[in-house]
Amino acid sequence: MAKFKVKIDKERCKGCKLCVIFCPKQALQESKKINKKGIYFVELKNPDLCIGCSTCAVICPECAIEILKND
Ligand code: SF4
Ligand code: SF4
User: How many other CB atoms sit within 10 Å of the CB of residue 64?
Assistant: First the structure.
């Protein structure tokens, strides 16, 4: 099981991709689906890649990402 849970609020996401660009493990990607605002939101590509650094959560201007530890 992945060590961390990356919770992304797709309706808050404005598609800026800052999280995708700054994730050191390339664990995030743009979804092929859109949210209610018509934006291609970000989703987790591979949970096993996430090291729980929280860079994505800190950098997100919409506070759409939360990192939780799985135990
Ligand atoms: S940084 Fe936040 S608003 Fe920007 S793409 Fe990522 S989740 Fe969406
Ligand atoms: S917590 Fe770090 S490794 Fe995990 S998705 Fe966010 S930026 Fe990437």
Answer: 20
| Residue 29 C-alpha from the chain's centroid | 8
Q: Which residues are near ligand 2 (CB < 6 Å)?
A: 6, 23-25, 27-28, 50-56, 67
CATH of the domain at 27: 3.30.70.20
Number of structural domains (the chain) is 1
Nearest ligand, measured from the Cα of 24: 2
Q: How far apart are CA 44 and CA 67, in angstroms?
A: 12
Give 18-63 pLDDT, tens digit per residue.
Answer: 999 999 999 999 999 999 999 999 999 999 999 999 999 999 999 9
